[in-house]
Amino acid sequence: MNEIKLYHGENIPLELHKVRVVQKLHLLPIERRLEALYEGDFNTFRLNTKDVFLDMLTDSGTTVREIEAMAVGLDETLDETMISQSPRFIAYLVSALDVHGVPMIKPAGVLGAHVDAMQVCDHIPQKLIAKFREDFGDSL
Q: Which residues of 60-98 are buried (b: 16+ CB within 10 A; e: fewer)?
């Protein structure tokens, strides 16, 4: 059976059916970790590898494609053409749904199209809705 020498000199057997990777982890004091966050302006991409204990930013599965999609979204939020299209599209959507008989809150807002739930759910007794709010609150 083969052996592996660890960094501090200890030999351990290497079993052919499994391999163990042993690495000593160094957890920095909380003060240093906070200092590193301030130095990087709380941008995790600016942290140095030595200041990271567990790299959830890249190990969590964030792929280049996802980062690219975020960049496109940021670009679109700063594009005047895209920004001006949103309120017009929402107004169009509210009008189209209204024409098809969907009760909408009017006038259309700039952040979204809102269905008039009181009209859509008019078959639900108000006492039941009041009881639901009493039991579960308005936050649902």
A: eeeeeeeeeeeeeeeeeeeeeeeeeeeeeebbeebeeee
- In angstroms, rounded to a whole number, what is the distance separating the alpha carbons of residues 115 and 105? 6
Whole-prediction pTM: 0.39
Answer whether the bond into residue 125 is a cis peptide, omega within 30°: no
Stretch (H or E) spanning 34: helix 30-39
| Alpha-carbon span 44 to 51, nearest angstrom | 10
Token duo for residue 85: 């299209």
Average pLDDT on 41-65 reads 71
Say which amino acid occupies 30.
Answer: I
